[in-house]
Specification:
Helix content: 40-55%
Radius of gyration: 9 Å
Strand content: 15-25%
Number of domains: 1
Structural class: alpha+beta
Distance between the termini: 21 Å
Amino acid sequence: MFWKLKPGHPHYVDAVSRLGALEAFRSSREVELNLVSFTLTGGLAE
């Protein structure tokens, strides 16, 4: 199962950092995390 985070999501920057997805950050693309990574990033805690 995967979660997609859009640039406006509160944990987007954390996800980009965890994935090393700097190019996605620069081009404002959503990033895709597996469920475990999403939970470790802070996922639903807002």
